[in-house]
Amino acid sequence: MSADRPTTNPTDPAALPDAAPEADLTETGTAHLPTLERSVMGSVGVALMGAGLRSARPFQKLVLGGVGAGLTAMAATGRNPIAAALKIRQTGQGEVLVRDAVTVGKPADVLYGVWRDLAGLPRLMTHLQSVEVLDDTRSRWTVRAPTGTVSWDAQITADEPGRRLAWASLPGAAIENHGEVVFREAPGDRGTEVVVRLAYRPPGGTVGAVAARLFGEEPAQQLRDDLMRFKREQELGFAPTTEGQSSGRAAHGGQA
Amino acid sequence: MKAIVWQGTNSVGVETVPDPTLLLPTDAIVRVTSTAICGSDLHLLDGVIPSMEKGDILGHEFMGEVVEVGRDVRKLKVGDRVVVPFNIACGACDPCRRGLFSACDNSNPNHRMAEALYGGVSGGGLFGYSHMYGGYAGGQAQYVRVPFADVGPYRIESDLRDEQVLFLTDIFPTGYQAAENCGIVPGRDVVAVFGAGPVGQFAARSAQMLGAANVIVIDRVPERLAMAAAAGCQVINYEQEDVLIALREATGGRGPDHVIDAVGMEAHGHGPGALVDTAKQRLKLSFDRITALRWALLSCAKGGTVSLPGVYGGLIDKVPMGAAFAKGLTFKMGQTHTHRHIGPLLSRIEAGEIDPSFVITHRASLDQAPDLYRTFRDKHDGCVKVVLNPWA
Ligand SMILES: [Zn+2]
Ligand SMILES: [Zn+2]
C-alpha cells in the first residue's frame, strides 16, 4: 500500500459515529461538464452567437459571436477549455480538486497537532475566518467570500494521529467540500511531507469555478500560500517580509 | 539617507530615501562602508530581469558596520564589522541546512512570482534584485536592513581593508564556486573561462588555486584579457580568433576539460544566431542571449563539466544539446551559496594567496554611480569593477 493514499481507516469507527463513507479524492483530469451545464451553456451560446450576428456594431458582433461560439463548442464537446487552460482539475464525482504538498522540517506528530487544533486553522489559512469546534468530530467553518461570508458544518471522517486527517462537509453545506491532510516522514531527515487534497462543488459548476478564478479567487494559489505560510511558521516562527522597508517610493509619499 | 534607485529601464539615480528600520526582530541595520556595482546589476539596468519597480534600491555587494540589531539577534552585535552575502538565507530550512543557501525555501516573501516562472519552486531572496527575488532593498545606500542577521553577515576581525574583503559578498565566491563545480583534477585539467569580467577573473584565479594545469580566458576587451594574462592565464580574443579552433589548438584537440560560462545571458556574440538572440531579447520573446553557452558546449572536452555562474533568467533556444549529449557533459549551475564560501576564502585572503582588490578599476561616490553604471555597462575606460563609498 502506498503510504500517501491510505485506503483504510484504522480509527475505531465507534469514535466517528456519523462518519459517512469517505469520498474519493482521485484526480480524473480537467473539467468535464455535467449534462445540465452543457445544455444551459449550449442554449446561451447559440443565443449569444445569434445576438452577435444580428448586432450592427462590429466590436459587439465579434465579442458576442466569439463568446457564443466558444460556449456552443464547449457544450458540444462536453469540455471546458477555459477550465482546462486554467488547470481546474476534477475528481470522479465532478468536483473541483485542489492538491499540493510541502516539506516541513518538523516531526509529523507536531505538525498533525497543529492541524488537529481546528480552531487554530484560521491562523494557517488566511481565507478562513473561523472554525468553531462543536464536538469531538464536528465543527462549523466560516470563510470569507467575495459576497460576504459563507458557513457550513463539517465532520472529521478520519483521524489517524501523526498520519492523516480527513473531513467532509455535512449535508446542506453552501459549498459541498471534503478533503484530507496526510503527514508522512520525508526520506533522509528532512522532516515531514504534508500533502493536502481538497475537493469542492463550486456554486455554478465548472463555469462558476472559472468565474471565481477569473475574479481572483484561486483555491490552488490559496492552498500554496497557506502551505508556505505554515512551513515558515513552523521552521522560522515568522514570515519574512519587506513590508515597510525604505525605497524611492516612500520618499515620494508613495507606498514603501 | 542617500541610495541608488532604479527609476526605470536604463535609468538609475541617486535619491534621498528614508533610513531603513528593523522590520522583524531577527533583522539588523548595517551602515554601509563600501559597496560595488555587479555585472548582474546591468541585467536590472537594461530591464532584462523582470519585476523591478520604480524606487527600488539597488545593490547586493556591500559591507559595513552593524549599528542596530533586533531583539532576537544573538550572534551579531552593534559595532561588528561585517561582509554580507548577496543572497538572503534563513539558515533553518532543508536547503540551508545542506549548505545550499541560495536555494533557501523561506527567505523570499514573493515566492509566488518565482514559482510561477520557475517550475513551482522559488530560490531565496536577494538584496536589491527585483521583486521576483523578494524585493529586498539593496546595499548601494548609506544604510541597509539585513534580514536573518545571525545567518548572513560574516564578521571580519582582521585589519584587512574593505577592498580586500568586499568581494567575499558575491563575485569572489561566485567565481570560486564556478571553479569548484568543475571538480578540477589538479595538475591535469585544463579550464576555459568565457568572459573576463569580474566573475570570470575570480573564476580563473580560483581554477588556478584549485590546481588547474592551464586556465584559458576568452573575451574581447583587451584590458580584461590583460588582467587575466597578468595572473598567468592563457588568453583568447574572440574578435581576433576563431574561438573553437583556438581552444582545440590550445588543448591538443581535446578541448578544455571544463568550461565556465561567466557571461550568462548578456553574451555579445557574432553571426546570425547572436543577432536572432538579441532581436528576440529586445522583443521580450526570450530573456537570454547564449553565444557563450553555445561555445562552451561545443568546445568542452568529452566527459567535461560546463559550469554556469552567469545569470540565466528565462528560456533559451538553439542550445547544441546534441554536442552535450555526445560528449557526456555534466552541467553545474545556479546562484552562489555565498555563506559557505566566505570563511574558507577569507582564510585564503589572510594567508596572502589572493588579494581580491586586483579587480578594482574605478572608485567613486554614490553621486557618481549613475555615470559609472554606464561606464561599466559600455566597458569604457578599462572599467572592470566599480567600488562605491556611500559616505564620500
Ligand atoms: Zn552580483
Ligand atoms: Zn533557508
TrEMBL record, chain A:
Coiled-coil residues: none
Residues covered by region (Disordered): 1-20, 236-256
Domain of life: Bacteria
Keywords of the record: Plasmid
Sequence ranges assigned to domain Coenzyme Q-binding protein COQ10 START in this UniProt record: 104-227
Name of the protein: Cyclase
TrEMBL record, chain B:
Residue ranges of domain Alcohol dehydrogenase-like N-terminal in the record: 25-151
InterPro entries: ADH-like_C, ADH-like_N, ADH_Zn_CS, GroES-like_sf, NAD(P)-bd_dom_sf
KW Transferase (keyword) present: no
Cofactor names: Zn(2+)
Keywords, sorted A to Z: Metal-binding, Oxidoreductase, Plasmid, Zinc
Domain Alcohol dehydrogenase-like C-terminal: 198-265
PANTHER family noted in UniProt: DEHYDROGENASE, ZINC-CONTAINING, PUTATIVE (AFU_ORTHOLOGUE AFUA_2G02810)-RELATED, ZINC-TYPE ALCOHOL DEHYDROGENASE-LIKE
Similarity-based family: Belongs to the zinc-containing alcohol dehydrogenase family.
This protein's name: Glutathione-dependent formaldehyde dehydrogenase
